[in-house]
Amino acid sequence: MIETPYLLFLGDAPDQLAAKVAQGIRDWRPQNAIGQFRLPGCGADVKLNDMTLAEAREKGAKTLVVGVANRGGIISASWKKVLIEAIEMGYDIASGLHNLLRDEGDLVAAAQTHGRTLHDVRVPTVGYPIANGVKRSGKRLLAVGTDCSVGKMYTTLALDEAMRKRGKKSTFRATGQTGILITGSGVPLDAVIADFMAGAIEYLTPDNDEDHWDMIEGQGSLYHVSYSGVTLALIHGGQPDALVICHEPSRAHMRGLPGYQLPTLEMVRDTALPLARVANPKCQVTGISINTQHMSEDEALSYLEAVEKRMGLPAVDPFRQGADRLAEALDAI
Amino acid sequence: MIETPYLLFLGDAPDQLAAKVAQGIRDWRPQNAIGQFRLPGCGADVKLNDMTLAEAREKGAKTLVVGVANRGGIISASWKKVLIEAIEMGYDIASGLHNLLRDEGDLVAAAQTHGRTLHDVRVPTVGYPIANGVKRSGKRLLAVGTDCSVGKMYTTLALDEAMRKRGKKSTFRATGQTGILITGSGVPLDAVIADFMAGAIEYLTPDNDEDHWDMIEGQGSLYHVSYSGVTLALIHGGQPDALVICHEPSRAHMRGLPGYQLPTLEMVRDTALPLARVANPKCQVTGISINTQHMSEDEALSYLEAVEKRMGLPAVDPFRQGADRLAEALDAI
């Protein structure tokens, strides 16, 4: 568990896209972020107050979150200076970078000296169990995709928000580093040892109130040959009651796999649902989430209408329209 | 790669079952095993000459293979004494135990002093790539199961042997620790990090002659919720041209999962084949392998006949009948 509130470190992000972790925290857990810290030349701005380390600390900030991707695969000297100063002031540091904080001797030394914690959210810190398949109480929804990076995290975060606005009990369950940094906890599933993947998801989504929903962030795709095993572990470890199928219509091929076509929504439904029913015979597909960012408003709406008719399920772009209709569909489950 | 030939360490195995790794080597790679080493009270015997460390070393043994499961999860003092003496005589040590050789300070010290290698085959030693899905040359067969521990390793070892007896090019590809110790190499898939599972199988089964078959040992089952992700990584990383479905008819429920029924052969076929065709559109199910150890000869033969008729595919128990008919079926692929 990463202590909140955060100060978001944007560093010298060349552009807004490089700060997408910080933007995710700003969008989904604004109450967790007290301010932003930018170095000279920073090209990103997540519209929080710019603060010094000392100012944010005074306002109660507990953790400096690296909300930016680094260039060239190193933690630069200018970043280091800030991170070490932060540790000296009493901040924990949290990062989802490939380069681990724990591999940087000077950061480790500073953290030990000052009794602070370095959170590398890409690395599991729990000894997860092997999945036991025992039926859990409460309800769970899992986002499954036609491909990687089609909007599964966004969809489940939006669903979680829509549910809570409707007065329902809901928890977003992060399974990747961005989601973990946004919410402060989760399972970095892609870094878990094979035998423990499904068990890690059981651990992430334990027994709960019967009217509580876990909104489980999906990973990969059953049709993505590099990561499909991770997806199936989510389906079987998650025991979902509901699946939402996520799709991005402009892809020419599977991400990183030229020559591999995307499956249709029907193919994903017909593959995922029987597999999900092994763990939960009552599982249903309850909605479709389409990422229409590459379409005009008119194109998007007519595309969504066509999908809705074709699939017989609510089809929305949660970014354009919110996830209310996906949330409403869960009332019947 | 573990250096051969081996001396098989049976230790103080309480019974034959505890020495199943040694028995596997004896059955499938007898040319790799010079002899067996037993401690007083050993209840196992794999019918090799009993030898001292010195005798086997003189005959050329390079590696002492721990061919026995340990009790109580510790490497006992009586084992240690032998392992250290072996290292001092120039042996490498190979083990598939949960307790790693590398975690034993005295073994590590001895190995460093004498320049020997400790092989913990449960632990990956390679930085596997992320799968790229690129079509590989040569042919590959994968054993898929209705459940765990139904005979997938045995089936692929028997198929490999049958193919080579027919003068065909074939290599058994181990994906678990017993298989790795039997053949001296492979991928301990259950210990690989999630993101690299499929890539590890691509690495294990690279481009080969067009008429060469890799016989890939399966793991888990698409219907076993604890390990299904590992199975799907094998299906997508392996790009199999042929699947053989393995089954053990006496199971009351999935291994370790009371309340989970076994799927039918048809269910496994209809789930595995479309998934396999994502990576290799030409994939076919070519045979059924039934573990009939709990049946009489008559029962077994009539069960196999019924399965063969029902599935329209050769159905054999390779332990009773050999795998010739499963191998013949590959001529058409």
UniProtKB/TrEMBL annotation, chains A, B:
Domain of life, source organism: Bacteria
Pfam families named in the record: DUF1611, DUF1611_N
What is the protein named? DUF1611 domain-containing protein
Question: InterPro entries from the xrefs?
Answer: DgcN-like, DgcN-like_C, DgcN-like_N, P-loop_NTPase
Matching SUPFAM superfamilies: P-loop containing nucleoside triphosphate hydrolases
Domain D-glutamate N-acetyltransferase-like N-terminal: from-to ranges: 46-124
The segment(s) forming the D-glutamate N-acetyltransferase-like C-terminal domain are: 130-326
> Known Gene3D superfamilies for this protein?
NAD(P)-binding Rossmann-like Domain, P-loop containing nucleotide triphosphate hydrolases
